[in-house]
Amino acid sequence: MQLFELVSGTEISYLASCKRRLWLFQHGIQLEKFSDLVQQGRILEEYAYTRRKKKFQGLAIARIKIDYLDAQSKTVREIKRSPAFQSAHIWQLKFYLYVLSQYGFQQWTGILEYPRFHQTQIVTLIPEDIPILNKMMEEVIKTRNSKQCPPVVNKPFCKKCAYYEFCYADE
Fold first, then answer.
1. Are strands 109-114 and 75-79 parallel, antiparallel or unpaired?
2. Pick from 67, 63, 46, 147: which is nearest to 98 by CA?
3. Which helix H or strand E contains 72, and what residues bound it?
4. What is the rounded CA–CA span in Å between residue 139 and residue 87?
5. 26: which residues sit within 8 A by CB, 6+ positions away?
6. What's the CA gap between 105 and 23, in Å, rounded?
């Protein structure tokens, strides 16, 4: 089994934003279903582009689930609620492009969409990203196997995280 087949896009995103969040998620503490912001994101994804579902298809391959795939233009589209975790979103999309390339889908482009902010961002996978992604995949596996939860990171975006109350319950 290839390394990329052991890792999900969510895990790459969580690693890029917060290793503690990744560890908690991997160890069965999945608080996203209780987060109003996450629910808003799901609703936004469901209703922001209603005609898109007829035009594009989703794809589940390895451990990833791509929202919208346009085979004609070789484009992967990912909808997000807010650019608060934009760097993590970019790495998640680069990971999707990498996984697709491993299955023979070469030279695809990603588009991150933030409908509430009327923003889009083109994301491409460049050769320099591959060693970074390999290290990220290794780190995801290492975090999954760790018995100890990483410490709180205390970053500005923590207040918008589904794990915020869990991480700061003692304060």
1. parallel
2. 63
3. none
4. 17
5. 11, 143, 144
6. 31
Q: Please indicate, yes or no, whether the overall pTM of this predicted structure exceeds 0.90.
A: no
Q: What is the pLDDT of residue 42?
A: 59
Distance, first Cα to last Cα, the chain: 43
Domain CATH number, residue 54: 3.90.320.10
- Report yes or no: 94 and 123 within 8 Å, Cβ to Cβ: yes
Who contacts 124 (Cβ-Cβ below 8 Å, separation ≥6)? 97, 109, 110
Q: What is the residue-wise DSSP string for 149-166?
A: PPPP---GGGGGSTTHHH
Measured CA to CA in angstroms, residue 55 lies from 28, 51, 71, 106, 113 at distances of 35, 7, 10, 21, 17
Residue 47's domain comprises: 3-167
**Within a 10 A sphere around the Cβ of 53, how many other Cβ atoms?**
12
Domain count for the chain: 1
How confident is the model over 105-114, as pLDDT tens digits? 999 999 999 9
